[in-house]
């Protein structure tokens, strides 16, 4: 019976690690997206840091990426930056790849 319990514990631990890694990748991705958008808006380094944190926080409004995309598109538009939703979605996907790469290199 112990062998099955050990397997079950190992599977649960792997699930927790995978879930934590997915959360960290998403948070890093959102921070990178915030930095990307801040650069287009011409923000100062301090403003960029604050904005990147605000983008990360925006992801807690609802599940999925729509809250983040809506925020970034709205902020870029309000700042007079010529952009659209597909451009931001593409940037989000690119930042996801970069965030994953960064976190997996750290391991």
Can I get a quick summary?
This protein has 107 residues and is mainly alpha-helical. It has helices at 2-41, 45-58, 66-78, 85-106.
Could you walk me through the main structural features you see in this protein, from its secondary elements to its overall organization?
- The relative contact order is 0.14.
- Helix 1 (2-41) packs parallel to helix 3 and helix 1 (2-41) packs across helix 4 (85-106).
- By secondary structure, this protein is mainly alpha-helical.
- The protein is built from 4 helices and no strands.
- The longest helix has 40 residues, at 2-41.
* Overall structural domain count: 1
Q: Provide the succession of SSEs.
A: HHHH
Q: Per CATH, which architecture?
A: Orthogonal Bundle
Number of helices: 4
DSSP summary, beta strand count: 0
* Rg, Å, rounded: 17 Å
CATH C-level label: Mainly Alpha
Pfam families: ATPaseInh_sub_z (PF07345)
Protein name: DUF1476 domain-containing protein
InterPro entries: ATPase_inh_sub_z, ATPase_inh_sub_z_sf
Core attributes:
83% helix, DUF1476 domain-containing protein, ATPase_inh_sub_z_sf, Major Prion Protein, mainly alpha, elongated, ATPase_inh_sub_z, 107 residues, 4 helices
Explain the layout of strands and helices.
Blueprint: H1 2-41, H2 45-58, H3 66-78, H4 85-106
Helix pairs in contact: 1-2, 1-3, 1-4, 3-4
């Amino acid at each position: 019976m112990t062998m099955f319990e050990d397997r079950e514990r190992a599977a649960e631990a792997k699930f927790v690690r995978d879930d934590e890694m997915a959360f960290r990748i998403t948070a890093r991705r959102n921070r990178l997206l915030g930095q990307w958008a801040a650069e287009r808006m011409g923000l100062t380094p301090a403003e960029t840091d604050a904005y990147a944190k605000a983008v990360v926080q925006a992801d807690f409004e609802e599940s999925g990426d729509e809250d983040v995309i809506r925020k970034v598109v709205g902020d870029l538009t309000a700042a007079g930056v010529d952009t659209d939703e597909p451009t931001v979605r593409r940037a989000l996907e690119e930042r996801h790849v970069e965030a994953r790469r960064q976190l997996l290199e750290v391991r």
